């Protein structure tokens, strides 16, 4: 039985890490019970392994769906990159469709696995919703669906089906918004200053993606509404994260790649405002430059990521989505501001994002075992949470 | 320190006794860990000529160190002090002497130099008396035969550079004996952690030593000039060059033409600030070359680190204030050259804020952080003046985002934030600087003084007013060189007002700009007078820079220190009290 941890103690934060360890490798004493449970389940059916997927696995779908969107944007006729458009146009269009289909299939697979997990291990899912990192990744499937919707070659943005799908995907985002943002400033146990961590930016990104899709559909008011919702909470979150009230205690070292989400939020805001205002005006530029600055700032701090790069884990997929979104923003920037420098920027960032995504796919293919969940990081957690709530209620 | 004068009897350990009778007195004996030494017999030293050699140095031993600041003794008295290692854990860092007499040299060479790896790990007690103690009278002329190695830990490569140079100059050196001390220097290569700065220092600029702390270097003696030359000196350049910009604006702005200001003040001020900048940069460069460790310590100081932006900001001011007679248009390449180091510094500082750890913002936030923000806006203004498009927007965006964070943090006055003073201090004027410069930059980027610029201007004006009405609370602060850095926000606000007057011209705005310009000019002139008085009359423009001389670890008997410091005002008493406290 694991000792009684509060939701925010360091030991609990290490529980997701333990899910990445092999059952035979030695782990800290804290995760011994998870290991024994893992051993029991490993000896069980494969199905139990598959139900141990937690929402963090949606990073894969985020990466792939954003790649599809990037390729689609690069192939647009307004893109002015001399070299890039040449390359991009030589690739036949079925390659894009293939990429889009792969992304769709991955997303559907992950969604179905997560649904199965919901049915079979509902307690774990509830525990996940309460965890300060896990709860943000519940936005990830809806973000992926919206990205796929924006990049689909089959539907036009003004078609009826598009609009229906937009409503279907945005509704859960708004519901989660109300729940999570409400917690930030009303709930006693989950103040923002305690809960804030870089993954909280995914909530903001969700709103911004919805805003962009709405703007492309022509629904301007909904777009502005979701944009303002996202931006106001981004303001608060940005300040809180920079203040680092609790220091780096709130995020385990293995999850450091999620720092790249700092890049993703302003880039997404830039893209959303670009769609809303239909031109890359000064505010878009400012957001893009901020994102670029944060990118340079993170890339020049390799020591921050050293520990997490020691072994391959699902956290590595956190690099792909922000880089792709930054490349997208650079593409839009180059489309608007013609010139050599923006084109070079677009070229460099796009190539970087493609390389990173391909590398991650290769790694996943060859080291699938590392990436599969070996135990449910939230299983013991849900029991612990029960106990902690009982203790707290005394 | 004259033993005969002291009212307090020396503790038994340090009781005066005939040192000649003690075997192994003042010669290193590693095996004998309980090497006691006595205070040098002061009376016998009075005859010898030469300068005083007071030793106080601390080295880290086994992770604990104590810094004892012992003021220099009356001339020619000597002090050799080393203390036993006590199993109670009270380990006092040993003091090093400067002069290595021949008699003991051999013993020295036998012991430490052959056991270098051991030395750094073991407690080591070693001190060599001054020559006079040995009875031989040798002229102690410091510049010729010995170097003052008290300040070695602050010098570049711990004094090796200086020795190289003195070697080259053909001066005799005591290399072999000094090398023995090198092994212990590794502890002083790293600057203290940021927590130590907060623990050891207090005050709005973190420049006063707390009562519980001691300084590594002697507090009563004037340190070498370069060591006393802080990076705050660049604040002077900021103040003067911003005045140059003000007078240029007064000269060129059409709305202020009723004043008929000639271009002469701008020219004079610009040349003065250029000369000052060159001078200050040269001195600081010398400091970097000769006192690299001290510079490192300044860099790690939570408040002083922001002043490292000051040279680049001053260069930007110089470019902004260039008189039209000298250069009508500057080349864009200058902008890139000036912004590159600023960019690199920013990456470092903002990255530290973001990635947490010891230097996260909630802990180190203080009003001087505005200096790191304002460089962005000034760069944006200069770039927009030059006609660049994307670069100014880049820096404006970065500056705005981080300004928001800093502004909220400082307003919050988080409980984890230790540096914000309860009382007002001129450093609060830095609050006014970013919005006023941002307003000018935005107006230039947009091409007109639009709503965004007006919003920023009104914020700056409001902050200025709220500080101006509290001017009574700014009393009672010791004048320091960094006050110059706080004048440029006032000047910036005046310039922003003039630009606002250009957009909205009426009697109110005109009088406001006149009033603010007058205030800022008056403040700068007053400050100039003060500076001259302190520099030439009182000769304390550059006091000992205590804030970089803190120890790396808290002194063991810090509470006793505080007690003794508060009870005994005389520093001599204090030192004897120290020795008394050592008995515990």
Layout: helices, strands, pairs:
The complex is a heterodimer of chains A (394) and B (584).
Chain A: H1 10-13, H2 15-18, H3 32-42, H4 46-50, H5 58-74, H6 82-90, H7 93-120, H8 122-130, H9 140-151, H10 160-186, H11 192-195, H12 201-217, H13 220-243, H14 261-277, H15 282-299, H16 320-336, H17 340-366, H18 368-371, H19 379-393
Chain B: H1 42-45, H2 102-110, H3 116-119, H4 131-134, H5 142-145, H6 160-168, H7 175-182, H8 194-200, E1 201-202, E2 208-209, H9 225-228, H10 234-252, H11 264-290, H12 292-300, H13 304-307, H14 310-320, H15 332-355, H16 361-364, H17 370-386, H18 390-412, H19 433-446, H20 451-468, H21 488-503, H22 507-537, H23 558-567, H24 571-581
Helix pairs in contact in B: 10-11, 10-14, 10-21, 10-22, 11-12, 11-14, 14-15, 14-17, 15-17, 17-18, 17-19, 18-19, 19-20, 19-21, 20-21, 21-22, 23-24
Condensed summary:
The complex is a heterodimer of chains A (394) and B (584). With 394 residues, chain A is mostly helical. Chain A is 68% helix and 0% strand.
Task: Characterise this structure.
The complex is a heterodimer of chains A (394) and B (584). By secondary structure, chain A is mainly α. Chain A has helices at 10-13, 15-18, 32-42, 46-50, 58-74, 82-90, 93-120, 122-130, 140-151, 160-186, 192-195, 201-217, 220-243, 261-277, 282-299, 320-336, 340-366, 368-371, 379-393. In chain A, α15 runs antiparallel to α16 (320-336). The longest helix of chain B is centred in the C-terminal third of the chain and has 31 residues, at 507-537. The two termini of chain B are 22 Å apart. In chain B, 50% of the residues lie in helices and 1% in strands. Chain B is an all-alpha fold. A two-stranded antiparallel sheet of chain B has the order 1-2. The chains are: A mainly alpha (394), B mainly alpha (584). At the A-B interface, α13 and α15 of A face α15 and α18 of B.
